[in-house]
């Protein structure tokens, strides 16, 4: 009897610790600027006619369009949010902001308590918004979820709140390096702003850790390893880029002013306005370079860092977002040239670039995933805060 055929060869034997082969879940965005333009135009018209009350309903139309055109492994996302709950959350936030504004206008002494109240409730609102948004998002019929705790939401906001709280408590009104209370107020405002800028990378780390450790879908629980020094390094490079942009803006503004002075020599403009021209040119260029170049530079690198370090038991994420600054500058130019009409086209182009820069690899077949018991329980009972506030302030 030949036993060789009955013995499996080495090639046929499975390797005990072999990693399962990962399949790539392609992310595609199929939204069209021309299609979204119609939604944007109707939303804008109804918001104006309703004095802003249509805003949450416009937002739900926008979210549903974006989700329906976001395909992961060929399957689109779906949004099941209730417009009535979003309207209730919108009214609540509007009342809080109105109370703070009116307190500052008519009773300056009441402005601080109103601001403190807004700061106290904001982490809870932010957490509720993520629970609402993800709890009403589905893919392949599976509901997403967010399980971050309320305590961690407040801890994630500490780097933002501590500088303001300390300065408010320790610095009496009117005191400072000058005998002029107005100058002292500006001085302490600058100190607070500087501290907030120094704390911004740490705040980004805590907020992103909180978010990316709370995402859930089926049995998958996201985790992230995000080092604080990595975000500070990105922040340092962004500051250096900002300094370079500032110098570039001054040089460009000087060139513009010089051209205007030449025109003034020939009687085209008034020479006395040269200083005003220089100031306007500086402000315009700084705004364009900052909002159009600097912020996208920071956002792209943070996206690559954060999603590149996010994973779950079966999923691995990777982000290679490039060209966002170039696209954003182009969008700004076209928005200005078209008097704002290019805005919906710019939104679609930016969304497509950011989404398709993300790659997802899965070691299991998503078709075999089933809704977890916890997910079904959350869908049935809902979160009290999420149901009450029912709002989305942006993920």
TrEMBL record:
Record's keyword annotation contains DNA damage: no
Keyword Kinase among UniProt keywords: no
Lineage, highest ranks first: Bacteria, Pseudomonadati, Pseudomonadota, Betaproteobacteria, Burkholderiales
Transmembrane segments: 37-57, 86-103, 109-128, 149-167, 187-207, 231-264, 276-299
InterPro entries, per the entry: DUF898
Protein name (database record): Uncharacterized membrane protein YjgN (DUF898 family)
Keyword field: Membrane, Transmembrane, Transmembrane helix
Domain of life per record: Bacteria
């Amino acid at each position: 009897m030949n036993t060789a055929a009955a013995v499996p060869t080495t090639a046929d034997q499975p390797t005990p610790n072999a990693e399962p082969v990962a399949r790539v879940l392609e992310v595609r965005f199929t939204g069209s600027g021309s299609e979204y333009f119609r939604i944007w135009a109707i939303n804008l018209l109804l918001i104006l006619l309703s004095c802003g009350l249509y805003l949450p309903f416009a937002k739900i139309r926008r979210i549903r369009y974006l989700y329906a055109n976001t395909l992961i492994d060929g399957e689109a996302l779906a949004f099941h949010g209730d417009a009535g709950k979003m309207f209730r959350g919108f009214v609540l936030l509007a009342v809080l902001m109105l109370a703070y504004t009116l307190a500052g206008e008519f009773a300056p002494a009441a402005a601080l308590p109103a601001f403190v109240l807004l700061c106290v409730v904001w982490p809870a609102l932010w957490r509720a918004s993520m629970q609402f948004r993800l709890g009403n998002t589905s893919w392949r019929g599976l509901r997403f979820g967010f399980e971050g705790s309320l305590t961690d939401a407040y801890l994630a906001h500490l780097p933002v709140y501590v500088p303001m709280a300390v300065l408010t408590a320790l610095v009496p009104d009117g005191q400072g390096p000058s005998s002029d209370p107005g100058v002292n107020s500006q001085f302490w405002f600058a100190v607070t702003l500087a501290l907030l800028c120094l704390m911004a990378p740490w705040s980004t780390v805590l907020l992103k850790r909180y978010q990316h450790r709370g995402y859930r879908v089926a049995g998958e629980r996201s985790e992230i390893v995000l080092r604080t020094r990595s975000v500070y390094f990105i922040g340092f490079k962004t500051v250096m880029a900002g300094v370079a942009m500032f110098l570039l803006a001054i040089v460009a503004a000087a060139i513009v002013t010089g051209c205007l002075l030449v025109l003034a020599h020939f009687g085209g403009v008034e020479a006395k306005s040269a200083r005003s021209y220089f100031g306007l040119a500086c402000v315009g260029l700084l705004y364009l370079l900052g909002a159009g170049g600097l912020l996208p530079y920071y956002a792209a690198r943070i996206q690559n860092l954060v999603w590149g370090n996010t994973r779950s038991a079966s999923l691995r994420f990777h982000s290679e977002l490039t060209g966002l600054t170039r696209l954003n500058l182009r969008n700004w130019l076209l928005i200005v040239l078209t008097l704002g009409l290019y805005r919906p086209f710019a939104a679609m182009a930016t969304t497509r670039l950011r989404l398709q820069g993300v790659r997802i690899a899965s070691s299991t077949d998503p078709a075999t995933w089933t809704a977890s018991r916890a997910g079904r329980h959350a869908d049935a009972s809902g979160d009290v805060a999420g149901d009450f506030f029912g709002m989305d302030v942006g993920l």
